[in-house]
Amino acid sequence: MKSNQTLKVLFWHRKSKADSKGFAPIICRISIDGKDAEFSTTLKAHVEHWNVEAKKVMKSADSKKINSVLNQIENSLEVNFTVLKTQHDFINPMMLKNIFHNRPIESKKGKIEKIEQKTPSLLKLTEIHIKDFSELVEKKLRSKETLKQWKATQKKISEFLKFEFKVDDLNLSEIEYSFAQRLYKYLTVKRNQVLKDAAAMKQIKNLKQILNIAEANLWITKNPIEKFKCGSEEPEIIPLEIFEVEKIWRKKLSIERLAKVRDAFIFQCFTGFAYQDIYNLSKEHIMYVGSDKEPWLVKERGKTKVTEMVPILPIITELIEKYKDHPYCKVNDRLIPVNSNFRYNSYLKELSDICGVGKPLNSHLARHTFADMMLNVLHFPLEDVSKMLGHKNIRTTQRYARVKKSRIGKKMNEAKSILFEDNGELKKALQQT
Question: How many domains does the chain contain in total?
């Protein structure tokens, strides 16, 4: 390990913040070599039920549940700390706090430099933004895929200006609210290759961000399309059922290129890694954590720069072993051979037909399938699924992993056994412990 620092985790009761009913928040303090960081556990306990010496809740109906969550927090911090020790020579408490909350490990603050130049035109401003973004990509602070999206937005704005205004560029002062409305209509109706609603809204959202930059630099007094709502109903992605995943896994394939694509897809289904992250996986991303030295895949997600951590399941071990001596993997230091994004998704469509799945396969579907499997089949808490997916916000995870009726039914059956007798009679109230 690079670091030999030690971690201490302490829970304490902030009684000074107790509410009118006597409930006060429980705070977690992280200490690493004398330096501290704190965060709220979002849990509360009555001032009479907190044991100062044991640092736990006692003599409360919720004591078992609350103490269990506190143990989970402590265990998660220890696992994250172990991982950080393998990656960094020095760790401070804020780094551990950030990775625990699914944020980038370090938030770098730099000086804001004012751009000394005349007010740029719309496409010139877009070009400036792309140049700045490219520098962040070179420093590996932003994703190459996101940079491609910005270049695509620039191209579509240029197309629109020529089609609608018969000009090559436009002054920022000439842009009005109707600009967004007309751009949306062009993208969804008038363009040769029309976009779907969500894709068109994404382009306008990017334009709005460009104009926010203009406003921040005082090149315009106010973003003219700020009030244009870019909300769009996202199409629900139906994940694969576990029997469909098994069907793909067990399919005998005589074509090598399809067999490799199938293996990569299965790898995604059981790790939840996005295409760009599975593409770059190497041996250095395998970490051994905990007292049992369990193997995990730990990687900074390319899109969000949030660390995603997934235990290596037996099927993943099998795939890593299968390709350890593959020429591509040996030369490029990769765990598994993966095609270019275009070829990968093209071959997946072919694989879908051969396996008779009945729905198109793509790399993003595998990520949704992993989320669904973790939540509804293996019953992981949503917070754990969010951590494994490398999401910044749990609301994003909620879009990936929707609770199924089968999960609700199972929980309701458990609730029935607690609340009701076998004959349907309501059980007598249990005495509080």
Answer: 3
